[in-house]
Amino acid sequence: MNDSPARPDAPVLDVWCELQCPDCRDALDDLRALRARYGDRLELRLRHFPLEKHKHAFAAAQAAEEAQEQGKGWEYVEAVLGRVGELDRGGEPFLVEVARELGLDAEEFDTALVDGRHILIVDADQAEGQAIGVTGTPTYVIGGERLDGGKSQEGLRERVTEIADRLLAAGS
Q1: What is the pTM of this model?
Q2: Do 41 and 10 touch, CB atoms closer than 8 A?
């Protein structure tokens, strides 16, 4: 999922994330800082990796894809991650309510969650994550390096910045 167009030659930062994950919520500040620092010079892509231990994570990933389709993918992701506890308690009705709060078509969200139109995207992301060794969230992949934020967020923004700066310098 990516709703801000990057330059065609921009390095890619894949963020394997789960919207019911407290560690992913904690990583939001880092993601905002990276988006602010690099703008269109770094392509930041949210990749879905719902964990079985969070019962609403798969539905949340599908909802994020619907928000992307309606033009507010990152805004929706940030809104849901910022309220992980409410997602734990509220489930799918909470996901629809967040869509309504953001001015999205809430009825279409509800329909998308029922008809499963985004399941293949979520399944594909999860399968790719498993294939490259993602085991928890958040996990970052940039420049061929996998950085596991599920173990610790400490120093991750600096490490991503270091790799992105190196990739940008090599590309110019």
Answers
A1: 0.90
A2: yes
